[in-house]
Amino acid sequence: MLSAVVVSLSTTLCSFAGPGVESVTPLATPTAEATIVETAASVKDFSTLVAAVKAAGLVDALNSAGPFTVFAPTNEAFAKLPKGTVEFLLKPENKATLVQVLSYHVVPGKITAEKIVTMTSAPTLEGQRLDIAVTDGKVTVDGATVTKADINCSNGVVHQIDAVILPVGDTIVEVASKNGSFKTLVAAVGAGGLAETLSSKGPFTVLAPTDEAFAKLPKGTVEMLLLPENKDKLVAILSYHVVPGVAAYSDTVVGMKELPTVEGSTIPVTVDGSTVKLGDAKVIAVDVEASNGVIHVIDTVLIPNK
Q1: Considering the entire predicted model, what is its pTM?
Q2: What CATH number does the domain containing 145 carry?
């Protein structure tokens, strides 16, 4: 979530200049001294975005030093949202949600088109990451196509996109509950009284054993752990699967020797080719995003040594 978003928009306009990326049509060029908000306000196609920035109270923030990269949806992009969505977001009582959505369109630092085409993801001020892809000469950000690029500003750069991109709204607990492969884990989190904690702001990195992983434990272990009298032991095991204070994506994890845990112990990280192991567990899926962190799926329940 954003406490201060800063962005400005002045502008000289370049087209995408990367291998295999087709050029894009430049916008009319405001003065080079214009801030992001001033530039957006001077472009007719950004009027809904400007109204949203004002409703969110982000004008001053988006006019400060930066630098920032803004992926700016056009009026037509906002019009693609389900009927009533824009009106809902602009209501004062929904300001926090609007700020979250807008901050998901802002990346810290100035990232030009030349750099974007070399990237597969980018962190946002909202906290989650954007997925970047280049396919058949088109650059997409979370599925939205960049239609105009490199609107250079006094405090950053703006790239126009054809759709509003939305962060994941579900918490780690909600993502796991809806997935269907983590029924035992969700039951254990509930029995351990950790659902509220793992639904809080975080961020957290959760190493999530599947139902099959729990089934590999000795017969009767899960049932024993779920008994009220064994709550402390259950909490210790679950806490050993949580990395506190950070959303550690896979590209970060593979560069580490060990992961700290809420339980207090560390988990060794080993990488052998494309296989990544965390302790005795093999990572079978990575970077499942949630509003308060990220989940990596593992095939074995990890047991702390304590």
Answers
A1: 0.79
A2: 2.30.180.10
